[in-house]
Amino acid sequence: MSDTTNPATNPATIPAAILDALKLADPSWRAPLQAGLEAMMRATPGYLPALAQDDYLPTGGRLFAAFALPLEQVRYVLVGEGPYPRPESATGVCFMDGAVGALWSDTGLSKPVNRATSLRNFMKMLLVADGRLSVDDTGGAALAPIAKAAGTDGSIALLSELQDNLLAEGFLLLNASLVFRKHVAPIADARAWVPFQQAVFAALAGCAVKPTLVLWGKIAEQLKKVPETAGFPQIHAEHPYNLSFIGHEGMQRLFGPMHLLRRR
Questions:
Q1: Residue 17 falls inside a structural domain
Q2: Tally of structural domains, the chain
Q3: Rounded to whole angstroms, how far apart are CA atoms 95 and 240?
Q4: Domain residue limits at 178
């Protein structure tokens, strides 16, 4: 229970705009997320009030959009670094670029996918894991026949369908820092959100099945230092903006059986 007599821990001191964003979270997450915000207020009392007055991504009240999946349904926590640094791309859900609609073009991956380097490499890794692409040949010529067949072979066509498939597998698509600001180093914002992440993982630790943490990149790996994550199974990989991610055998073993690029 929070201490309502101390202004530093009083939920009323959390800016209204921040609290209002909790509406996009599933009801099962509301109490843990508010506890995380209260912990942030105790750790750095000025951070959230300053953030509420600043320009940050994602916009549109989507700060907690990642928590749409009910708490007890979470089986994996995919942790990215932070929101995309573009308003049209930052959705509040890690690695789901809002500027991407169609996944395929006539000649391979769509232009928006190719511009979103991490998503492009993630898709190529999924195709390798699915046995449809060779890790030694992931260029346009190899992708063209896959794209041509996508309309008739049961492949998904839209990024929203990929997100739906990830949710169906129980993925919480979380960023280490929930915000991006042009004038603040991502690692600085990520540190400020650590007390919030502690509350998230404390809630997940109470679930009947502890989810597996899937950590991509150095900022995400900082969560290994958070005590609340100690009892969780963990899988690590380089950030997907690295080409080497396509050939990561651990990621292929994890995602291959899920067939995320197949329509369900």
A1: no
A2: 1
A3: 9
A4: 66-264
